[in-house]
Amino acid sequence: MVMRDERRGMMKRQTLAAGGLAVTMALALSACGGQTKEETKAEAAAATATEQAAAGKGTAGGETKDVFPLSDSVTVTIAGARDDSETPLGDRQFFKDMEEKTNLKVDWIDWPQSQVVEKRNLAFAGGELPDAMMGNFILDTASLVKYGAEGWLMTWNDYINEEYMPNFYALCQRAPGLLESITAADGNIYGLPQFDYSITDVTNDTLIINTEWLEKVGMDMPTTTEEFYQVLKAFKEAGDLNGNGKADEIPFTFRYNDGNNGQLSFMGFTGLAYNNQHERICYKDGQIVYVPQQEEYKEFLTYMNKLYSEGLVDPEVFTMTQAAYNAKVKTSEPTCGVISIWSAAGVNAPIPGNDPEKEGVYQYVLPLSGDNGVDPVWIPRYTPYNRSFCFVVSADTKYAEELVRWADLHYDLDTSIQNSKGLIGTYIQEVGDRVYEELKKEDGSAYTSAEKSEFVTLDDGMYGIAAGDCTIKQEVTPGSKAAANELYKKYLNPNHAYTYALMSEEEAKQDSILKQPLKDYVDQRTADFITNGNIDARWDEYLSGLDKLDVDKFVEMYSEIASRSKVN
């Protein structure tokens, strides 16, 4: 494999991959019907008359202490997930290089992304697992804990040390809280994560405003909720701001409860906010709270009702599909004054005469200050620890130690940089000491994940980057997401990015019982409060409804989970 040893500009081409799994907490866990591992294996044996392997059981597997390359070649089976557009796992250069480096051969079982859960469940139900499984949604966190507790998966506890896993062990030292965040409530570690601290400063939704309309009504960029209100009133009362002869101007639009186009971050003027990834939980004065239960939420609802009741909010915010929303905001003839959206780039592009190198018609509105004297906040898209469990080993493998050492190679820092961003020299280049920028094609377009997959696995493997390890430069052009990230960065309060340790099986069951009824109730009542008002008179009754849905029990459970994590 290609190897370069010097610190600056010289990198090891020993790459694997991973990316951003959106880890789900409550997929259906019905594959084994509640049976233990041994029960399922017994049934499978009777049905198939196939001998069941029972070696390993989560220990060091073989007696060999060989370091790579192994003196004797070993072949293992690994089931991996990949998108249909991507290069088959066994054909990727990284894995070919890994085999040459280690003398560990892999018989790859490619599972299509769309079938991962089905294929995985069938493997567990049949009682026969490959030596390891790797990739996107191989195991959600609830399944990881369930199958781990049932004895299906190898535990990593005795391996995460300098002897067996020097790279991952070093990562844990650089990233306090990482080890706790992957440890189950029973004290065991059942899977290895993807971990990338470099993506924490990423906004979720952003707020953009039509600056041409601002100029026409003779007003400046709003900085407070009162100024924002006055601007929206001016947009409504000004008449034909877009000059099309129609009364089609909409002062403020968003998609209710949409993480990328919604109102969730907008409530940051209260000092509290949440997004849909954080279960409506955040920290307040050092304590876990349920945001829709707080006085700040009432303040937000009161303000939103004021806007809605005066016709300043799009009446379709509760009903629009994403397609309808795109059609409304991405037009050559602007109809919306203020828009909640992923970035301004997609809105500015269709405007006739707009130069993509210059600031467009729509520009970002920074978080607004309220009249409560608190600093406004905005919601980061990701929790500080992008933890996705992407590599597990069967408890029955005969090659536990070999797989442990093989997995650890992926967490080498230089390898991790390439795993997450692509091959150095082709897709990314070093422009300073641990400072990198992504390369583009000759036509200026970005390389796709499918193109990068020729070498690495990207979203379907392992890597780890801690805070301060490196800097990935982004191209900051006006209206781009990178521009939004820079503007909103100082408002992204990490206390609002609730990160928790792994749930126990019992906690996962409780979560599945409590979370959805609370969400449905809050969604319905929030929409009702915004549209119909009378909030003060109905607030106590609303809180009583939360109590009946065991909100305190929900908060208590998440507080307990948070106590097992050092992330925050």
Please name the defining characteristics of this protein.
568 residues; alpha/beta; D-Maltodextrin-Binding Protein, domain 2; 6-stranded mixed beta sheet; 4-stranded mixed beta sheet; 15 strands; 33% helix; globular; disordered N terminus
Task: Explain this structure.
By secondary structure, this protein is α/β, with parallel strands linked by helices. Among the domains are: 108-200 and 385-469, Periplasmic binding protein-like II (D-Maltodextrin-Binding Protein, domain 2); 206-379, 3-Layer(aba) Sandwich (D-Maltodextrin-Binding Protein, domain 2), CATH 3.40.190.10. It is 33% helix and 13% strand. The protein contains 18 helices and 15 strands. It has helices at 37-48, 93-102, 116-126, 141-149, 166-174, 178-181, 211-216, 225-237, 295-309, 322-329, 345-348, 400-408, 413-421, 449-452, 481-488, 505-532, 535-548, 551-563, and strands at 74-82, 104-112, 132-134, 192-196, 206-210, 250-253, 281-284, 287-290, 336-341, 362-364, 388-393, 428-432, 435-438, 464-465, 471-473. It has a six-stranded mixed β-sheet. Strands 6-9-5-10 form a four-stranded mixed β-sheet. The chain has a three-stranded mixed β-sheet with strand order 12-13-15, with no helix packed on it. Strand 1 (74-82), helix 2 (93-102) and strand 2 form a beta-alpha-beta unit. The model is unreliable at 1-34 and 44-65 (pLDDT under 50).
